[in-house]
Automatic annotation (TrEMBL):
Record-given protein name: Beta-lactamase
SUPFAM superfamilies: beta-lactamase/transpeptidase-like
Keyword terms, alphabetized: Signal
Origin superkingdom: Bacteria
Signal peptide: 1-29
Length: 435
């Protein structure tokens, strides 16, 4: 090699080295944790890291209470994409069906205040006139508020119907001869012309549609929108950021995580028919899910609401003891005798009742790019887990993994902290009454 060739080679290598030095480093896996580190509860951090990294979940949050005190509040980020935020303990997430226990809380407050009765028929509050050319099932007139709360309305579920009534926007629009998007009233008018699959009060079918109806019952009984009534009730206990999710990507709330399911479907939030991501208006419309799957919330604020249910004698208690007993009571169709600890679905909560040893109540939520889980354990341990990713091929797999992570971490705790992080994480403004 000549000296001139060696010089030229050195110059080229130098230039290449300079260019590489100015380029960003190759992307590497990033794991970020925010919030107060609590060494006694490190097992929850470890379980969340395993849960999220093995499932490629960009954002997660956890809030843990012990004996009414917030002892852990953490935000987790894994390999964030361009739309993702650095997750904070109070970041907002869609919570899917964990909205149902909130709806039950609101209905039971209206019963407590004398604005509703459990045996009121829903036709007293909701227009159930069927669409032209169809006839209402005569049994529809007998469906009660309690039937809806306990999933005993007779409406069926996807396993029995082959579809979920609340996710048939295109069929509803075509059946009514209207353009998308459809409203709550449109879905109810359409579905009121469909026969029930069981006599009300007899057969459990998990029913999003029944909780859609409860949202309308709340509006009629309170004289306010579902969202407004809920916010007024929860503001009084220091929950300020609860809001209904919006369907469009650009309408995410400040501090809300991003969603990426990977799936697409025809738009149901407008009449264009264009393909949209499932989570942003493709095949499902988050704008109309309110009472059965519509809330956006932070983990600590959900925990604030859950711990409020532990103190029915408190001045700002949402529900008194009689209302709590009603909300967690055995459903109308439960075959007696009841074996303590057996599972049942009460009014918006899954329950295991151990009698003098207390009740465990819980609920899971799942929608495209959303997974949530809330638990009130019988000994004063309570937890909220929120994720912005699920297994789209097997959503139950994600829910089961969240449950396993909760109890794996709980089993490793040998000492519970004495601190209370509620004042540090959440606003301290409380209200004794409505504004």
């Amino acid at each position: 090699m000549s000296s001139s060739t060696r010089v030229l080679g050195f110059i080229l290598l130098s230039l290449l080295g300079g260019l590489l030095a100015g380029m960003p480093a190759p992307a590497r896996a990033q794991w970020t944790v925010t919030g107060v580190d609590v060494p006694d509860l490190a097992a929850f951090d470890q379980q969340m890291q395993q849960l999220m990294t093995t499932r490629n979940t960009p954002s997660g949050a956890i809030a843990v209470a012990w004996q009414g005190r917030l002892v852990l509040a953490r935000g987790y980020s894994w390999n964030p994409g361009p739309d993702d935020i650095v997750t904070q303990p109070d970041s907002l997430f869609r919570i899917a069906s964990c909205s149902k226990p909130i709806t039950s809380t609101l209905v039971n407050r209206l019963i407590q205040d004398g604005h509703l009765a459990p045996d009121d028929t829903i036709g007293q509050y909701v227009d159930l006139t069927p669409r032209p050319g169809t006839t209402a099932d005569p049994r529809l007139a007998t469906v009660t508020v309690r039937n809806l709360l306990e999933m005993l309305g007779g409406f069926g579920d996807p396993a029995t119907l082959g579809y979920d009534p609340v996710f048939r926007d295109t069929a509803v629009a075509q059946g009514l001869g209207i353009a998308l998007p459809v409203s709550h009233a449109d879905v109810i008018r359409y579905q009121s012309g469909v026969a029930l699959v069981a006599a009300p009060g007899t057969t459990y079918h998990y029913s999003n549609y029944g909780y859609k109806l409860l949202g309308r019952v709340i509006e009629a009984a309170s004289g306010q929108s579902y969202e407004r009534y809920a916010q007024r009730m929860l503001n009084r206990i220091g929950v300020w950021n609860l809001r209904l999710a919006r369907a469009r990507r650009e309408e995410r709330a400040p501090g809300e995580v991003a969603y990426r399911s990977g799936g697409q479907g025809p738009s149901v939030i407008d009449a264009t028919g264009v393909l949209r991501p499932w989570e942003y208006g493709g095949s499902i419309n988050q704008d109309t899910m309110d009472a059965y799957g519509g809330w956006v919330a932070s983990a600590p604020e959900l925990l604030r609401w859950m711990t409020n249910l532990d103190a029915p004698q408190a001045p700002n208690a949402i529900l008194d003891q009689a209302s709590l007993d009603r909300m967690f009571a055995l459903p109308q169709n439960y075959p007696l005798p009841y074996t303590p600890g057996s599972y049942y679905y009460a009014s918006g909560w899954a329950v295991r009742d151990y009698g003098a040893q207390g009740r465990t109540t819980f609920h899971a939520g799942s929608l495209p790019s959303t997974a949530s889980y809330v638990v009130r354990y019988r000994n004063g341990f309570e937890i909220v887990i929120l994720l912005n990713r699920r297994n789209e091929n097997n959503p139950d797999d994600t829910s089961n993994a969240m449950d396993a992570a909760v109890w794996a971490a709980y089993g490793q705790v040998t000492r519970w902290p004495s601190h209370d992080l509620f004042a540090q994480v959440l606003p301290t403004i409380l209200r004794d009454g409505f504004d």
